[in-house]
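Input/output pair, single chain:
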Amino acid sequence: MTQVTPSTPQELRDEIERTRADLGETVEALAAKTDVKARAKDAVEQTADQAKDKARAVKDQAKQVASAMGKPLPVAAIAVAAVVITVIVVAVRRRGS
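Output:
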């Protein structure tokens, strides 16, 4: 990449302004990467969302199986309990790490 040297004071000012903007974006990106607390919070939220999605899927599947078996309540209750226990175990393990 060939750089062109600004030939007028206005071109130089414009280049300085672009450089400042680029530097500001770089600093913001680096600050975001070093914000461990925010990154950890994002990871927890993402894990919780995944667990909720999985719980919904398991619940739906349990309902389908229960409907086929004619015993909807016990099977669904067992499936929901299993999902809740799994979410708790994952959360406790993550907190301990």
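Residues 16 and 53 are 48 Å apart (CA to CA). The chain has a mean pLDDT of 82.
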